[in-house]
Automatic annotation (TrEMBL):
CDD domains: AAT_like (cd00609). It comes from Roseovarius spongiae. Keywords: Aminotransferase, Pyridoxal phosphate, Transferase. InterPro entries: Aminotransferase_I/II_large, AspAT/PAT-like, NHTrfase_class1_PyrdxlP-BS, PyrdxlP-dep_Trfase, PyrdxlP-dep_Trfase_major. GO terms for molecular function: L-aspartate:2-oxoglutarate aminotransferase activity; pyridoxal phosphate binding. Belongs to the class-I pyridoxal-phosphate-dependent aminotransferase family. Its cofactor is pyridoxal 5'-phosphate. Its EC number is 2.6.1.-. This is Aminotransferase.
């Protein structure tokens, strides 16, 4: 039987970038004490208060088919949160509830691209970005953000790549680099989108994790609300990764068409999960700050571990639950370094190459273990790197 070209093309027959993660899990299953600094998932479970709200919502009857665009109460709460955090007027009709940010990526690229269209994204990138673009039949075209520029995207480079493109995907605070795009960067991106008539897809799932400066949503910039689609999620802000609950913010017509897509794909999100999300959002910004606090603190743990040496350098990390480390002084690729570190010291980090060519010679450290374990793992990483310098 023949498999469709679209699905065969998602990973283009190559690596999915998760070899180190898979190897680490195999070692753990064999009983080895591996410190996993790979996946961006909290080391705490979803708050019991949210889980109790989910359970009660099920008992109260929120178990049947739902409004495909989302429960009105949840769309209202999300609109309130977006307006409060960005200063941009937002109505419930501009919100689509989706099963997690990944579903939002899929929906927005289905909206903006026909098969064969070009969709831009920034390299380094979250691992699923090019595969998501290819899964809708579009052509995934990277635009390099250089390590020498602190991985801030260059609007001129985007403009040079934009001829014939339909959309641009950006992510700030950024996974994998931890970079928060500056106002100058965002305004330059917005200018290119207006000049080139591009849809801007802004992945803002880390909007509560900003350690320096402020988060700027491009939807808040002049003349950008009508061409910007913002993806949000409860996964990072409320430690609800497994609940698969997120949203897309966009123009009403766009939301309506993406609602048609959900009717024919996900068929909505479980009602008891949506009602738990309402409860979680009602817990307010203070709760979101509490969830984010460990990552701010652990960023400091990593920075202190790098003091007094010049082999391992941190990319200026201003947000998200990651630190990107430059290891090019060792002469090793990120892939070789990560695999050797895992085999030698049982510390698992993600190779920069898993996130694109621009991050070659780097590794990403997820700040997702207790402070003491992170500090010990970083000592091992720094010492290992120092021993590889020629």
């Amino acid at each position: 039987m023949q498999i469709s070209r679209r699905l065969r093309n998602i990973n283009q027959g190559g690596s999915d970038g998760w070899e180190v993660f898979t190897r680490a899990r195999e070692m753990k299953a064999a009983g080895l004490p591996v410190v996993e600094l790979t996946v961006g998932e909290h080391d705490i479970p979803t708050d019991p208060e949210i889980l109790r709200a989910m359970y009660q919502a099920g008992l109260d009857g929120h178990v049947g088919y739902q409004n495909f665009q989302g429960q009105p109460a949840l769309r209202e709460r999300v609109a309130e949160r977006v307006e409060r955090s960005t200063g941009t007027p937002t109505a419930p009709e501009e919100i689509l509830i989706v099963p997690g940010g990944q579903a939002g990526l899929f929906a927005t690229h289905n909206l903006t691209c026909d098969p064969g269209d070009t969709a831009l994204y920034i390299d380094p990138y979250y691992a699923t970005y090019p595969g998501t673009i290819r899964s809708v039949g579009a052509v995934a075209k990277p635009v390099t953000a250089r390590a020498e520029d602190g991985f801030q995207p260059d609007p001129d480079a985007i403009d040079a790549a934009a001829e014939g493109a339909k959309s641009l995907l950006v992510n700030s605070p950024n996974n994998p680099t931890g970079v928060v795009y500056s106002r100058d960067t965002m305004e330059g991106i917005a200018r290119v989108c207006r000049d080139r008539d591009l849809w801007l897809i802004s992945d803002e799932v880390y909007d509560t994790q900003v350690w320096e400066g402020d988060h700027l949503s491009p939807r808040a910039l002049p003349d950008m609300a009508e061409r910007t689609l913002v993806i949000g999620s409860m996964s990072k802000s409320h430690a609800m990764t497994g609940s698969r609950i997120g949203w897309v913010v966009g123009p009403r017509e766009a939301i309506s068409y993406m609602g048609d897509l959900t009717t024919n794909t996900t068929y909505g999100v479980a009602g008891f999960v949506q009602m738990a999300a309402v409860h979680a959002l009602d817990m307010g910004p203070a709760f979101e700050a509490e969830i984010a606090a460990p990552f701010r603190r652990r960023r400091g743990v990593v920075m202190r571990a790098l003091e007094g040496q010049n082999v391992v350098r941190a990319i200026p990390t201003k947000g998200a639950m990651y630190v990107m480390l430059d290891l090019r002084a060792t002469g090793m690729s990120g892939e070789d370094f990560a695999m050797a570190l895992l085999d030698t010291h049982h510390v698992a980090v993600m190779p920069g190459e898993s996130f694109g060519r621009a991050a070659a010679g780097h590794v990403r450290v997820a700040l997702t273990v207790a402070d003491e374990r992170l500090e010990e793992a970083m000592r091992k990483l720094v010492a290992f790197a120092a021993g590889r310098v020629r």
